[in-house]
Amino acid sequence: MTDSTLRAAGAPIGACCPPIVTAALSEQDAEIMAAMFKALADPVRLRLLSRVASHPNGEACVCDIADVGVSQPTVSHHLKKLREAGLLTSERRGTWVYYRPAPGVLASLGAFLADTEKRGESEVP
Amino acid sequence: MTDSTLRAAGAPIGACCPPIVTAALSEQDAEIMAAMFKALADPVRLRLLSRVASHPNGEACVCDIADVGVSQPTVSHHLKKLREAGLLTSERRGTWVYYRPAPGVLASLGAFLADTEKRGESEVP
């Protein structure tokens, strides 16, 4: 996801850039965001994402969060899907791969949803 | 989606209630949110949602937003999916069904994502 795409989603990028809100969502931005929402469209993945973000240091490996009721290979599979969608980043350290939320991406998706709701509200007569 | 579920997602409910943030996402809340993200996991639906929210009065019927490159029956199908997921409400007036964002729902999903990102960031040493 590029900075311009993130800005199109109504999100602040870095400390210097104000949010830019676009009334109409472009086809390209819609494709990118739909792929991310698809990765979020699974209850186990949502719980894993929440667990990773809540873990000390804001990162976790499979060994830290394997208690969500599915097997460790399944946890690894879901974390990989979240990484491939650009929602998590990963770093291998020794035996384990550590995951953390990709900076700015969840906030940008959240800002798009909040902005969409706000636009609807602000137009109510 | 109940008020308690929305609050569990880290969202403000109404004017009186502060956001309540939970570190661990429950299985039930994850199921509810995953179904909503599934409805958002389609680029045409995202563009239609954006169009509905951007339309004058914050509502639109199929007749208003049928120019996203798919047939009118397909637009109707996608709007119905968004309504079934709880993201849009609908009201029939005469010939047409008018859609608008369901109050608080997109903002709640957005707050969950923003909060998840924030938790990850705040734990970085």
Automatic annotation (TrEMBL), chains A, B:
<keyword id="KW-0238">DNA-binding</keyword>
<keyword id="KW-0804">Transcription</keyword>
<dbReference type="InterPro" id="IPR011991">
    <property type="entry name" value="ArsR-like_HTH"/>
</dbReference>
<feature type="domain" description="HTH arsR-type">
    <location>
        <begin position="25"/>
        <end position="121"/>
    </location>
</feature>
<keyword id="KW-0805">Transcription regulation</keyword>
<dbReference type="InterPro" id="IPR036388">
    <property type="entry name" value="WH-like_DNA-bd_sf"/>
</dbReference>
<protein>
    <submittedName>
        <fullName>Transcriptional regulator</fullName>
    </submittedName>
</protein>
<dbReference type="InterPro" id="IPR001845">
    <property type="entry name" value="HTH_ArsR_DNA-bd_dom"/>
</dbReference>
<dbReference type="InterPro" id="IPR051081">
    <property type="entry name" value="HTH_MetalResp_TranReg"/>
</dbReference>
<dbReference type="GO" id="GO:0003700">
    <property type="term" value="F:DNA-binding transcription factor activity"/>
</dbReference>
<dbReference type="InterPro" id="IPR036390">
    <property type="entry name" value="WH_DNA-bd_sf"/>
</dbReference>
<dbReference type="GO" id="GO:0003677">
    <property type="term" value="F:DNA binding"/>
</dbReference>
<dbReference type="Pfam" id="PF01022">
    <property type="entry name" value="HTH_5"/>
</dbReference>
